[in-house]
Amino acid sequence: MDQRQLTIIVVAIVVLVLIAVVGFLLWRKRRSQALRARFGPEYDRVVKKEGNVGRGEDVLQFLTKRREKLEIVPLSSPKRSEFASRWTSVQSQFVDDPRRAVSQADRLVNEVMQNRGYPIGNFDQRAADISVDHPMVVENYRAAHDIALRHSRGQASTEDLRKAMVHYRSLFDELLEDSYPERKEARG
Prior knowledge:
With 188 residues, the chain is mainly α.
């Protein structure tokens, strides 16, 4: 093999490596854009928590694949009406007993999630599962849960409990009205 053939082979290898690198970078950019569009503010929260974009995106991909294995179903009209009526009752109790109302709101949201087909494991897993379908309100769910935990330690004011009810309501409304199993794209 002469020098000229060796040069051609080296150039061809370099070109192939460059094409592979550019292809990989384009794939990563498209993946990032798709995940950011799907998860909205949840994308930034997970990436920050994981410490870098690659690990954060791997977590979001894992959550998406996990969610695809779940059979999330819409609520029937009678079930939706029953839950809406129960929410109204819980909300009306807030004036007389805010602590009890927040506890009941938490249980009711979990019950709606379970009826829709979301697994009811530990809180972090529930929030992760919800984040795939409801990325715009999952942070409300986390905030409400945090207030409920502080309430159980006697560290939540009535104003905190009011905020928890508002946060629970935002997720409750989405879970209740989500009449189809496909997730909504993140808005905003």
